[in-house]
Amino acid sequence: MKIPKHLAVIMDGNGRWARERGLPRIAGHYEGIKRAEELVDDCIELGIKWLTLFTFSTENWKRPQSEVKALMKLLEGYLRENSYKLVEKGINLSFIGRRDRLPYSLSKEMERAENIKPKQEKIKVILAVDYGGRDEIIRAAKRLLEMNRDITEENFKDLSDLPNAPYPDLLIRTGGEKRISNFLLWHIAYTELYFTDTYWPDFTKEELLKALEDFSKRERKFGAVL
Ligand code: IPE
Ligand code: IPE
Ligand code: MG
Q1: Contact, 14 vs 201, CB < 8 A?
Q2: Nearest protein Cα to ligand 2, atom 2
Q3: pLDDT by residue (tens digit) across 96-134?
């Protein structure tokens, strides 16, 4: 089986997962975080070195304030209680997206987690929080201008949110929608896309292996003739 160097995931379907069980949407998000933690373990085991997870989009602010608030609290609490695991598991955690609109206490917790670096790194996990692909492109373009640098693909990537990451090889979206929803626009130009109806909280290791098997059969041409 081919293993992607960089896997990106749009973790969608938490709300519907909860609704179908008569639970509040936030219960789906709670379950979703647990599943994300398991996915990281699975990726380490499989030798995936980069994992980028869409956690909160620049458009998710449009949701009811109560859900937004609960999501922020959930993430903050999760980081506070669990970041001690990063070292023992060999996880290098970082964040992409905007920081200026997040609750102060959450951004502090993110900073703290980001500064915990394992000696023996097994995986880089990147959480996209208040992240939008268009917003990232605009920010990178502004910085290019400010620094008076040439507008080249190399310089642009250098000033993007993922300057050091290889471009994602595979993007998985759970939850049935077949769209990108403003995730990683620049970076996924040649990424293989995999869509599944499975809601995020039900996306088990078995489901991951199915996606990887499908990915293994893809012929990546990058515009060339093979
Ligand atoms: C994805 O699940 C998680 C976030 C956007 C934070 P949703 O909350 O979008 O779940 P559905 O799509 O409404 O089921
Ligand atoms: C994308 O899911 C964002 C995350 C998973 C964080 P959404 O549920 O926000 O996307 P749309 O609204 O269905 O396009
Ligand atoms: Mg959704």
Answers
A1: yes
A2: 12
A3: 999 999 999 999 999 999 999 999 999 999 999 999 999
Read off the pLDDT band of 93 (50, 70, 90): very high
Domains annotated on the chain, with CATH = 6-216 (3.40.1180.10)
Index of the ligand 1 atom closest to the CA of residue 71: 6
29 Cβ contact list (under 8 Å, min separation 6): 14, 15, 18, 70, 71, 74
CA pseudo-torsion sign 210, 216, 218, 221: positive
206 Cβ neighbours under 8 A, 6+ residues apart: none
> Separation of 13 CA from ligand 3 center, angstroms?
5
- How far away, in angstroms, is 127 Cα from ligand 1 center? 15
Helix (H, G, I), strand (E, B) or coil at 53: strand
Is the pLDDT assigned to residue 38 strictly greater than 90? yes
**Can 60 be counted among the known catalytic residues?**
yes
The owner of tokens 């996209």 is: 128
